[in-house]
């Protein structure tokens, strides 16, 4: 028995939460680069200032939101009955991209942010690289969600 019909109210509520979680998960990837530039222009040391803020937020807000994004996505597939299935190529590709995102945020970005917060200037480059990778993966994920290649 389904929790909700495809595109019914229950499905749409889960879709809303899914999209909201994406916004929460990716907002820092777009905000921190601008904050870094502003701090550098003001002559402030970027690493510890941004690193301390970012690491705490990544661990408590943005990382868990990214986990929720995938779990809600799985729920949407499960709720879609015959329209969307886990064995469709675009769904499988989206799962792979999601796992890559989790690896980048928890395995690369979060540790680099913590190092940056402790004054390791070389970690700033890792944070920037991880942010760029996350931007690229977000574009790939949006492509998969919108165009559903292989459907």
Care to describe what's here?
It is a single chain. The two termini are 25 Å apart. The protein has one domain. It is 81% helix and 0% strand. It is mainly alpha-helical and 151 residues long.
Q: Would you count the extended β strands for me?
A: 0
- The DSSP helix count reads 4
Determine the mean pLDDT: 87
Considering DSSP H and I runs of 4 or more, what fraction of the residues is helical? over 70%
Main sheet attributes: strand count, strand direction, barrel closure: none
The oligomeric status of these chains comes to single chain
Keywords:
single chain, 151 residues, mainly alpha, 4 helices
Write the layout of secondary structure elements.
Layout lengths: L8 H33 L4 H34 L9 H29 L4 H26 L4
Helix pairs in contact: 1-2, 1-4, 2-3, 3-4
Short description:
This protein is mostly helical and 151 residues long. The chain has helices at residues 9-41, 46-79, 89-117, 122-147.
């Amino acid at each position: 028995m389904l929790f909700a019909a495809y595109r019914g109210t229950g499905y749409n509520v889960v879709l809303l939460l899914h999209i909201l979680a994406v916004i929460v998960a990716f907002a820092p990837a777009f905000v921190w680069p601008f904050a870094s530039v502003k701090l550098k222009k003001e002559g402030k040391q970027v690493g510890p200032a941004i690193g301390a803020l970012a690491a705490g937020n990544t661990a408590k807000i943005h990382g868990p939101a990214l986990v929720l994004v995938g779990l809600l996505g799985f729920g949407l597939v499960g709720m879609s009955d015959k329209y969307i299935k886990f064995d469709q190529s675009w769904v499988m590709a989206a799962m792979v991209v999601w796992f890559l995102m989790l690896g980048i945020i928890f395995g690369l970005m979060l540790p680099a942010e913590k190092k940056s917060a402790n004054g390791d200037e070389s970690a700033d480059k890792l944070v920037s690289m991880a942010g760029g990778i996350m931007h690229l993966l977000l574009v790939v994920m949006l492509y998969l969600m919108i165009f559903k290649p292989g459907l």
